[in-house]
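Task: sequence design from structure.
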């Protein structure tokens, strides 16, 4: 296979790269190249071990994330580390889960590089809210279901449910809502959505460790979301999806099918509805 000519990874540069949701097979060609060539890899908690094993032998691997409930390193510290490695003439790979520009603070780190006059490249990755959900058989859009999808963070800079959001508008704005970082404030999120006009019997799913060896999913309703998530002991990282896209998993859980699950070719029961109508 002849790959297209790729940009060379120059010493003194930082590549800010998305590693996708987990499965190393979802890395981009540029991410694999960066792993093979980097002198220093500064990585997040969400980066899969299998991905880190692709790093060049001899590369410095530096963890820059939350671990065991300890607070994460301050963002300026991470940025300063990137600058220091770059000024030492290293090829610096800043590897982040999913996509660096989707709830990933990639922009903040890149702006610190701009301020320090360190050259950088951004390599997008597959974000968990799209690729992770695809591994659970939940499409971000589906013609019979949604003409819009909204991605929301479940907590803001200070760790609270984002107050700056127009929750009633969110509740009614798009048929499918995808929440990142939502497990901690699930009850508040449920309450705000229902208060904003979202139907309590709307389908809901929680997908944890998507696209990894530990992927798990529960399917429930908005009303039962909090209880069922607790009963199933769902753990972060997890995505929470509200809306009829969840029902499609009965037909599109291709990973489940590999393990023997029978897929329903008409998960939305459209055939029945069309015949009745
Ligand atoms: N930049 C990342 C998101 C970082 S925020 C991206 O584009 O995917 C961290 C949140 O992302 C987690 O709390 C969780 O909601 C979600 N997430 C990331 N990886 C995940 C995975 N493999 N499975 C489920 N959720 C994931």
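Answer:
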């Amino acid at each position: 296979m002849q790959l297209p000519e790729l940009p060379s990874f120059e010493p003194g540069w930082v590549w800010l790269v998305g590693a996708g949701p987990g499965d190393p097979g979802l890395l981009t060609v540029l991410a694999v190249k960066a792993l093979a060539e980097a002198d220093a890899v500064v990585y997040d908690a969400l980066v899969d071990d299998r991905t880190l094993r692709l790093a060049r032998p001899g590369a410095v691997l530096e963890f820059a994330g939350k671990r065991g409930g300890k607070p994460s390193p301050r963002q300026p510290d991470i940025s300063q580390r990137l600058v220091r490695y770059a000024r030492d003439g290293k090829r610096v790979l800043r590897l982040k889960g999913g996509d660096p520009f989707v709830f990933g603070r990639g922009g903040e780190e890149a702006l610190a590089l701009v301020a320090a006059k360190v050259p950088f490249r951004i390599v997008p990755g597959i974000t968990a809210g799209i690729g992770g959900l695809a591994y659970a058989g939940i499409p971000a859009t589906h013609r019979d279901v949604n003409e819009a999808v909204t991605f929301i963070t479940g907590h803001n800079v200070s760790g609270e449910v984002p107050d700056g959001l127009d929750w009633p508008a969110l509740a009614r704005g798009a048929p499918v809502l995808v929440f990142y970082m939502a497990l901690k404030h699930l009850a508040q999120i449920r309450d705000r959505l229902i208060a904003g006009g979202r139907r309590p019997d709307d389908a809901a799913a929680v997908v944890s460790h998507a696209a990894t060896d530990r992927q798990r999913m529960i399917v429930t309703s908005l009303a039962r979301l909090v209880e069922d998530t607790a009963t199933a002991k769902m753990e972060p990282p997890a995505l929470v999806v509200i809306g009829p896209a969840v029902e499609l998993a009965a037909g599109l859980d291709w990973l489940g099918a590999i393990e023997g699950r029978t897929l329903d070719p008409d998960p939305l029961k459209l055939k029945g509805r069309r015949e009745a109508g």
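Strands lie at 14-18, 40-43, 60-63, 92-96, 120-123, 149-153, 176-180, 203-208, 216-221, 238-242.
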